[in-house]
Amino acid sequence: MKQALFLFNPQSGRGRIERCLPRIDALFRGAGYRFAASPIDFGRNPFAGCEAVDLVVVAGGDGTINYVVNRMKEAGQDLLLGVIPAGTANDFAGALGMAKDPVKAATQILQGAPQRVDCGRVNGTYFVNVFSFGIFTTTSQRTPDRLKHRIGKLAYLIEGVKEFRSVHGVPLQILADGEAFGFDSLIALIFNGETAGRFHIAPTSSIRDGMFDCLLLRRSNLLLSLVAMLRHLLGGRPKQVKHFRARTIDITSPINEPTDVDGQKGADFPLHIECLPGGLQVLCPRCGADEKISRVTVFGNLMSKLLWERNR
Q1: What domains can be seen in the chain, in order of their start residue?
Q2: What is the pLDDT of residue 142?
Q3: Are strands 2-8 and 55-60 parallel, antiparallel or unpaired?
Q4: Which one, 20, 33, 99, 122, has least CB within 10 Å?
Q5: Are strands 113-122 and 125-127 parallel, antiparallel or unpaired?
Q6: Which residues contact 128 (CB under 8 A, 6 or more apart)?
């Protein structure tokens, strides 16, 4: 019988996952799994002594997935993951195509196909969705859980407004895949996925292409800077926004600006950021008869698999 380790954050999503646990347990046991459910203890590594596990199912938000991935890598393991969205934003789960309903997501995992998807690493810390610094980027760290549970994504917007009092540019020296340049940045976003807080900020990004999509917003008049970012999101090409793609990025600055990885406290400067093509193996939903896989996705899946095999 196969062994499934189910790790869930009881604080995520107003405790919704615990209410769904009996139904999820029945689904996995019905599919022939020994199902061991455990709330995450953020003070210990859940993979200590779990070498015989066939599948790890994580229920929580991006921060919970970040924690599990880092502890798994820390333990030197490359286990098959299933993701059940149970947080506020659930950006990584959205990139995988998981249903918002936990029970439906559990069904998708059991019927899913294993795929290699990319992850990022900055100064030895892994991330699944986005690494960032600058205005608004550490908002999720400061947003109280009680507020997120009560009003969802609106909590991030309310907390973000407070940052206007401390707006400042960060002088950067950047080396991206061998190309060096300087930039005085108001915000920096290094995307593995395509959304942040479920806002579609990097629509051309993919977790299957072996590359980061990077956005830098130049510091100028604050209002003009924000308008420039809005124009970029609407498909324009304002000169205040620099968009580039890279696999490896080194960033230095005289300021040790606070950083963020998947909503958690990030690394200190200087920064070495690298995309790890096919760095995670995840059970992804199979496409139904009325769904079509784009050629870009098919090509991305193939490239991630080839790059993973080459870098093993």
Answers
A1: 2-111 (3.40.50.10330), 125-275 (2.60.200.40)
A2: 56
A3: parallel
A4: 99
A5: antiparallel
A6: 62, 65, 66, 69, 92, 119, 120, 192, 193, 207, 262, 280
- The amino acid at residue 303 is M
Can you tell me which residue has the tokens 């940052």? 163
pLDDT tens-digit map of 265-299: 999 999 999 999 999 999 999 874 333 333 334 44
CA distance 151 to 177: 41
Cα 254 vs. chain centroid, distance in angstroms? 27
pLDDT digits (tens, 9 = 90+) for 148-171: 556 555 555 555 555 555 667 899
Q: How far apart, in whole angstroms, are the C-alpha atoms of residue 208 and residue 188?
A: 22
pTM over 0.90: no
What token pair was written down for 184?
Answer: 């005085």
Interval 6-29: pLDDT, tens: 999 988 766 778 889 999 999 999
Residue 309 contacts by C-beta under 8 Å, 6 or more apart in sequence? 278
* C-alpha span between 7 and 70 (Å, rounded): 14
Phi-psi region of 197 (alpha: psi -120 to 50; beta: other; left: phi over 0): left
Confidence tier at 196 by pLDDT (50, 70, 90):
confident
Give the residue from 183, 208, 209, 213 showing the smallest Cα distance to 196. 213
Q: Please, what is the Cα angle at 275 between 177 and 279, to 5 degrees?
A: 150
